[in-house]
Amino acid sequence: MALKYKRVLLKLSGEALMGKQGLGIDPQIVDEITAEITEVKALGIEIALVVGGGNIFRGISASARGMDRVTGDYMGMLATVINAMALQDYLERKGVQTRVQTALEMEKIAEPFIRRRAIRHLEEGRIVIFAAGTGNPYFTTDTAAVLRAVEIQADIVIKGTKVDGVYDADPMKNPSAVKFEQITFMDVVKKGLKVMDVTAITLCMENNLPIVVFNLTQKGNLKRVILGEDIGTKVIGE
To answer: Across residues 117-135, what is the average pLDDT?
Structure first.
């Protein structure tokens, strides 16, 4: 079986972990996601994960309601650590060795982010889960995902969402929205598409790091992306 990628970074939104319950972590959803990750890991792929915290707390929406933005963002970073620990627990129940590395030091529960150590874990066959974003307010977990992907020299960033790719409008609200099979980073910025924030897209563009956006909720899609099948939307350089 030909593997298109050797080392990948999978970006999961916090919302992906809450299922239909509206808040928090749905154990069944986490079990299903980690089962897919385990199946892909068995192919011999080196996998790193970055998970958001929107299912628990959103700094931006909190600041809109009057909370200090920096405080809100740090609370959001802590939410990502909770999600990372849940993913670690379910992966290790499936026999997959993992390490959580955080951008904020929390030595009782996780390693600090150390680039060389992270790469070594991947080479040793462990899944590394990067938590607490970049460790800085005003930066999203999308930016953190791209930054970590560049640092560990990943081949691609794979973003799992609830929709099957990138559209010219919100397909949930507009049934006539058109899906892009492939699009450039520059077009994403020019069209104002909600793939990732502009900082993350710019970082990808500068480092020629492709992104695939796909529907994580459909069983088997993660493996199909890893094997190079044309699903979702690929975002590339010129």
So the answer is: 98
Distances 58 to 7, 48, 131, 175 between C-alpha atoms, Å: 29, 23, 15, 28
- Report domain extents, the chain: 7-236
Predicted confidence (pLDDT) at residue 128 exceeds the cutoff of 90: yes
Distance CA 181, CA 56 (A): 32
Q: Is 160 helix (H, G, I), strand (E, B) or coil?
A: strand
Q: Which residues are CB-neighbours of 148 under 8 A, at least 6 positions away? A: 9, 48, 50, 113, 118, 130, 154
> Helices H, strands E: what count in the chain?
8, 11
- Classify domain 7-236 at the CATH class level: alpha beta
Res. 83: pLDDT tops 80: yes
- At 1 the pLDDT is 62
Mean pLDDT of the region 96-124: 97
Contact indicator for 34, 94 with CB cutoff of 8 Å: yes
Asked whether the whole model's pTM tops 0.85, one would answer: yes
